[in-house]
Each structure stands twice: as C-alpha cells, then as structure tokens.
Design goal:
The complex is a heterodimer of chains A (380) and B (104).
Chain A: E1 3-7, H1 11-24, E2 27-31, H2 34-44, E3 48-52, H3 59-69, E4 75-79, H4 84-92, E5 97-100, H5 105-114, E6 122-124, H6 130-169, E7 172-174, E8 179-185, E9 188-193, E10 198-202, E11 209-214, E12 220-225, E13 229-234, E14 238-243, E15 250-255, E16 261-266, E17 270-275, E18 280-285, E19 292-297, E20 305-308, E21 312-317, E22 322-327, E23 336-339, E24 349-356, E25 359-365, E26 370-376
Parallel strand pairs in A: 1-2, 1-3, 3-4, 4-5
Antiparallel strand pairs in A: 7-26, 8-9, 9-10, 10-11, 12-13, 13-14, 14-15, 16-17, 17-18, 18-19, 20-21, 21-22, 22-23, 24-25, 25-26
Chain B: E1 4-6, E2 11-16, E3 24-31, E4 35-40, E5 49-56, E6 59-73, E7 79-85, H1 88-102
Antiparallel strand pairs in B: 2-3, 2-5, 3-4, 4-7, 5-6, 6-7
Classes of the chains: A alpha+beta (380), B mainly beta (104).
Chain lengths: 380, 104
C-alpha cells in the first residue's frame, strides 16, 4: 500500500485528510512542520508528500527543502483557498499539482493516482496538420480528376472529329455539279450527270476520272446495274437497259410509269423503282418491259434515292435525313435507321446511291457542288 | 534543426474559462503554434474558449486564447484537453517563440 506524508499542524485538517486518504486506500503519515517532515522522510520514504498551505514555514520553502532531498518525489499543495496564482507559483516551484479547499475524496483521488507518473512538456514546431493535409490531398485529387476529364474529353472530341474527318475522306467533291446515279462496275465507279449528259468513270483508288461516255440525246436522271447490264432512266420517262461495257450498247427501252422517278435498283431477281411523288416502291419483273408485280407504300417521308441487294433495300430519306433499311420481302417495314451526317448541310440533296460490300455510296448535289460520299450500312 | 524539444517539466498554466470561474489550472503537455494539449484536474466543457497564462523559457504568455476541441479522461481521472489557438497573432508569436527555443 502506498504511503503519503501530509505536513500540517491543524487538527481539523488532519482529521479530514486522514478520512479521505483512508477511503482512497493510502497510508498517511502526519508531520507538524518541515523539520518533522524531513526527519520522518528519511525513515518512512513516502510515495508522495502533501503540504497544507498558510502554515509556517511558507510552502515555497517546504517545496525547496523536500526537493533538495528527494527531487523526484511528487509534492501536492493543499490550498486553503482556491487561488490559481498561488497554484501556478507552487507548480513552478516543483509542486505536481494543487488541490483547493474544501478537500474532497472526489477531488483528491485523481491527484493522488496521477502523482506518480510525470514527464516533461513536449515543445514542437510543426505538428502534422492532418486536416490541412486532407484538404490538400482532396483538392489535388479534384484537380487531377478535372484535368483528366478535360484531357479525356479533348481526346474524345478529337477522335470524334477525326472520325468525321475519316468519314469525310470518303466524301469527294466531283468535278461535275449534277450527279444523278452511281454504280460499281468491274473496279470502276460509274456516275451519271444529268446536266453534262454523261457517265463518268472513276478509279476507286483515287476517284480520278478514268473515262467519260456522253449521251447527247438523253438526260440521265437515275442509274442502277445488274451483273451484266445497267439501267439508265432519262428525263423523258424512259428506262434504258444497256450493256456494261465501254460503249454502253442499248439493249431495250421501257416506259417509266413513275410520276417522279427518284431511284432504281436490281436485287438480282427483281427490278425496283421509287416514285417520290406517290412515295411508293414498285417491284418489277426483270424483263424488257419491266412488268409491274407489286407496289408498296414507303413508311418513311421522302424517297430520295434507293439501292438494294438480294435481301434488303435502302432508302435515302431527305426529310428524315436518314438511311432507311427495309427487308425486300416486306418493304413497308423499317428495320433500321441511320443518320446521314452529310445532311448537316441543309441544302444537300441525295440523287443516287449504291451498295458496295459494307458501304453505301451516295451522290448528291449541295450548293452547286457535286458530291460523292459513303457510309457504313448497319449490320443485320 | 529538430522540430521538437522536451521541456524539463510540464509547464503549469492558469486556465480561465469565464469570469465566474477564474481559478483553474493545469499543465501543458504539448504545445505548437496551432495547438495545445492541457492536462488538468478541473472539468471544462468542449468548445469552451480558454485563456491560458504561463511562462515558457523565461517568456510570459498571457491570455493565450484556445478553444477546446476534444476532451479525454484517463484512468486516474485527469482530463486532457486538445485545444487550438484561435488568435492568429498569438499563433504567430508562438511560432516565433518555439523557433527560438528550438534553435538554442
């Protein structure tokens, strides 16, 4: 059990303090004065010393003398009055702590328990400010995120522009201003022009004109082709079947019954015409007279141009500004729609189209320019 | 130069919490230009503004204003008050003083 030495002459104080320390579980040795305390100190070696103030000699002397013989012993001053100035003074002189009257078990218990553990004040300059560090880290993270967002956005936009540019590499300004139809023929691109009344032959690799065939007596308004021949529609309302060779030898002529023929195509078995006036597609037999088999309502808005293969028919729709895909067995049902980016020009008018592998090729007029461009058609 | 030094004793400080309660005291366990850790037997409420007066390295600091941000209590019953210095001028003075101490 710990032993505590209490220096006081006052009997009342002794009784009070004895009761308190006994309750706390400490042995108490009382001394009347300093000399008595120092005598007992040598013999009993208390664990702590408690000094009651306002008794002679003054507390500061008692503190000095006790610390002289036992510099590390905890000393607590019991103040008769609550006075922080005295308390600080005594603590500066070496008192561990001070307790003010009225002394109670509740007040003294922590002081007694603590009095045995002491170290020195830590003085430091730059304690890590975690709150500030957190703010810095979060701010840096936010800046990095924003920067990343900008960089990503720039790359995205840049690629998108490049994609458009790549698309525009498939877009060519033609040397003639009024293209009306387009077909592929044995490694050549054939494009008709109604104004110059000619079919131009283009090298697909560089789109340079490799030949021209004039039709001085007809105005070609639409063009399509089969395996061995092509069909040329003229402004007089006649569809001419011709051989796909240099001279384009005439095979047959058929009256075109469409009020406003906007396109033709051959699906390998049947011949199709598009009438933009009635907005109807007509299926014909592939014979010299192009006998009409069946007619369908186009579910879109405008039949600007058409092309087909053995399964599907594609429509360029000027009003929807889209490429419409429909099945040949049900050309009134839209399978897919794809935006034609070139319609961003409000004056664009598609006048002809054809399919080659994965691409749909278009010829168009736009502000006194003849244009050739392509787009990928949607997969099945 | 090290940024930390241990004083030979825990610095005693008077603590004034209000005009009605002027006579409190404790010891400063740690101090820097922004914060102060105080140990005391007296119970003080959180967010209370304290006025500390103490002597450190032969320099008197009077009415150092701190706000109690965190309170803990040890098994002995003593209170530990994490406080922050609320006055920017006092923080600046404290920084200067600590620099002087550390460079001695």
């Amino acid at each position: 059990m710990d032993t505590v030495q209490i220096i006081t002459k006052n009997e009342t104080d002794r009784r009070t303090l004895k009761q308190i320390f006994s309750n706390i579980g400490k042995n108490v040795i009382f001394s009347h004065d300093l000399n008595d305390a120092l005598d007992i100190f040598e013999k009993a070696r208390p664990n702590a010393v408690f000094i009651v103030d306002e008794e002679e000699p003054p507390v500061n002397i008692k503190l000095r003398e006790i610390q002289r013989i036992a510099p590390f012993i905890p000393i607590v001053v019991l103040l008769k009055k609550r006075n922080s100035s005295y308390a600080i003074e005594y603590m500066k002189l070496g008192a561990f702590d001070c307790a003010h009257a009225p002394w109670t078990e509740e007040q003294l218990r922590p002081i007694i328990k603590k009095s045995l553990n002491l170290s020195g004040t830590t003085i430091e300059l730059e304690k890590p400010d975690f709150k500030k560090q957190k703010i810095v880290v979060f701010t840096a993270a936010a800046i990095v995120t924003i920067l990343f967002g900008f960089i990503f956005g720039w790359f995205y936009a840049h690629n998108k522009c490049n994609v458009i540019s790549a698309d525009r590499q498939n877009r060519t300004e033609l040397p003639y201003l009024h293209p009306s139809g387009i077909v592929f023929n044995k490694g050549q691109i054939l494009i008709s022009d109604w104004y110059t009344q000619a079919i131009y032959k283009h090298d697909p690799s560089n789109l340079k004109i490799s030949g021209v065939h004039s039709f001085p007596h007809i105005t070609p308004i639409a063009l399509t082709s089969g395996e061995d021949n092509l069909w040329l529609a003229n402004a007089e309302g006649v569809i001419e079947k011709r051989l796909k060779e240099d001279k384009f030898t005439l095979l047959s002529k058929t009256k075109n019954e469409a009020e406003s023929l906007s396109g033709m195509c051959f699906d390998g078995l049947y011949f199709w015409t598009a009438d933009s006036a009635s907005n109807r597609l007509t299926k014909h037999l592939n014979n010299d007279t192009l006998d009409k088999l069946e007619s369908f309502n186009y579910p879109g808005k405008t039949l600007s141009a058409i092309t087909c293969d053995n399964r599907f028919i594609w429509i360029a729709d000027d009003k929807l500004k889209e490429l419409i895909k429909m099945p040949l067995d049900n050309p009134e049902k839209i399978l897919s729609r794809k935006e034609i980016k070139e319609y961003s020009s409000k004056t664009l008018k598609i006048t002809g189209m054809t399919k080659k592998d994965e691409q749909i090729w278009f010829v168009a007029e736009d502000k006194k320019k003849g244009l050739l461009f392509s787009t990928k058609h949607s997969k099945e | 130069m090290e940024n930390q030094k241990n004083h030979k004793k825990y610095i005693p400080t008077s603590i004034i919490t209000s005009s009605e309660n002027p006579n409190c005291w404790g010891r400063i366990l740690e101090i820097n230009q922004n914060q102060c850790l105080i140990m005391s037997n007296f119970e003080i409420r959180i967010e209370k503004i304290l006025s500390l007066s103490f002597e450190m390295d032969n320099t008197e600091f009077k009415n150092l204003r701190c706000r109690v941000k965190k309170i803990t209590r040890d098994s002995d019953g003593y209170f530990y008050y994490d406080t922050i210095l609320v006055d920017s001028l006092q923080r600046s003075d404290m920084r200067q003083k600590i620099l002087q101490i550390l460079t001695k």
